[in-house]
Amino acid sequence: MLRLLMLLCATGAFAQEVHKNQQFYVGGCYGFGNEFGNSNYSFSNSYVQIQFYYSFNPSKKWEYLVAFQPEINFAKHQLLNPYFVTPDEPDYEQKRREFTQLKDLNQYAFNVAFFAKYNFSKSISAYAMLNVGPTISTKETERLTRGFTFNDVLGVGVAYNTGSVIFDVRPNVRHVSNAGLNESNAGFNTLNISFGFIVPMG
Length: 202
Hints:
By secondary structure, the chain is mainly beta. It has 2 helices and 8 strands, in the order αβββαβββββ. It has an 8-stranded antiparallel beta barrel with strand order 1-2-3-4-5-6-7-8.
């Protein structure tokens, strides 16, 4: 995946100049973060995205975009408060022993994101982003059942356009849960930041 991002970045170095009517873009990013505001568990993550953008009204001061952003999220998780697993759960003692061990888990997300972007100039822009995506989690935890979940992200960002490549910085808040489809649905909340690049297609 890292090699693919490097290839896309190298392609961007030779890309055509980003012109005012460009509607399709491709990009990639690397991000990382940690849980916040919870003493029951630890959760740290890093992730890689490939991004495909479509602009509904390029070159306008207020610009609106939609993006498909498939993602692999690499996480480390540990239950810190064993009493979060209550005695009314089946095999609760065994679950406490299992979940209090540090474990690695992957999450595969198929995100769709919506952007409201303000272009201050040809070079500088800022935006707000709302993202939702079905996600597959590879391991069960005390907070989430293994399998199907949702990846919800609210972010803001700043982009700098060099003329051939757009560089992007995006702080964001991420929530992962399964919308009550399974019993374990406390979810994970993380504060993240990502660094990426975007180049025009065609």
